[in-house]
Amino acid sequence: MADLSAKDVERAEFAFSIYDSDGTNVIDCVDLGSVLRALNLNPTNATIEKMGGTKKKGEKKMKLDEFLPIFSQCKKDKEQGCFEDFVECLKLYDKQENGTMLAAELSHTLLTLGERLTDPEVETVLKDCMDPEDDDGFIPYTPFLKKMMVLL
């Protein structure tokens, strides 16, 4: 790939190999998003599906040489958010300007904005990533985002 550096290709090959379950240089397309996220990209589910990702295991396979152009294209995609972008978004809910927001507002945001999560998905995310609420129902949002980004 002309637009990927040798280091990018090496990283992509390594991430791809982790999801290559039988060593044939092929992944199941249900893992496409996971491979891209392992490479510090944050494609939306719609982007993953558009790039050939599937929702069910066994529907489609992808070779490394098919993956590299997808990786290259996703690297260029400016619609992905990064950690700093997410912090800026949650600052909108930081009424006291002290790095906290209401846990209920975070839950509402996850349920209603962007690629909406289901109630069980939100419960899992909050359980896994959110620090305990203070007595007034506030949580620090930066640690939440750091934990969330690791999971992606």
TrEMBL record:
Native source organism of the sequence: Odynerus spinipes
Molecular function GO labels: calcium ion binding
Record protein name field: Myosin light chain alkali
Keyword Metal-binding: no
Keyword Repeat: yes
PROSITE patterns named among the record's database cross-references: EF_HAND_1 (PS00018), EF_HAND_2 (PS50222)
GO cellular component, as recorded: muscle myosin complex
Quaternary assembly: Myosin is a hexamer of 2 heavy chains and 4 light chains.
Domain EF-hand: residue ranges: 7-42
Record keywords: Calcium, Motor protein, Muscle protein, Myosin, Repeat
InterPro entries: CALM/Myosin/TropC-like (IPR050230), EF-hand-dom_pair (IPR011992), EF_Hand_1_Ca_BS (IPR018247), EF_hand_dom (IPR002048)
Organism taxonomic ancestry: Eukaryota, Metazoa, Ecdysozoa, Arthropoda, Hexapoda
